[in-house]
Amino acid sequence: MRKAMSTETLAQQLGAALLARGIMMTTAESCTGGGIAAAVTDIAGSSAWFDRGFVTYSNAAKTTMLGVDRALIDRHGAVSREVAEAMVRGACAASGCGLGVAVTGVAGPGGGSPEKPVGTVWLACYSATHDRLDCRLLRLDGDRAAVRRQTVVQALQGCLTLLEHTAT
After folding, report:
1. pLDDT per residue as tens digits for the range 21-61
2. Per-residue buried b or exposed e for 104-140, using 16+ beta carbons within 10 Å of the residue's own CB
3. Residues of the chain scoring pLDDT < 50
4. N or C: which end of the chain has fewer CB within 10 A?
5. Could you tell me which residues come within 8 angstroms of residue 25 by beta carbon, excluding any fewer than 6 positions away?
């Protein structure tokens, strides 16, 4: 288990790992509203390894910008493994990037349900270079800001872990 690190440290480490592998990165964000892209672009020189971010807060944006099938959203809901996976694959396809991360969830304070309470987030990291996908469900505590902050940290950590487990 990785020791808790600051967002800045995680973003710096991610950038170094991407640079070492010659891979560009993209983000597809719903509940974080661009927070992952902001954390990455806070790092000077990130343009060498970060290409673009998609903020797809609405279902229509997920469909038009990332190519997520509307039927998939209707069948599983926007906050689902299936949609997170489609988001990250769509972001990589649209950008041509070798690494992508997508998040979709319920940050609160409203919008939760018994099946998907506030703090429910699906995180998908995808190495298009190696066709390796890691998708997991997060159950986060706290208010809206805390859920969003934790999601950004988990996304950066997830990308680092995926890179560590793929060959160069």
Report:
1. 999 999 999 999 999 999 999 999 999 999 999 999 999 99
2. bbbbbeeebeeebebbbbbbbbbbbbbeebbbeebeb
3. 1-2
4. N
5. 14, 18, 40, 49, 50, 51, 97, 98, 99, 100, 101, 159
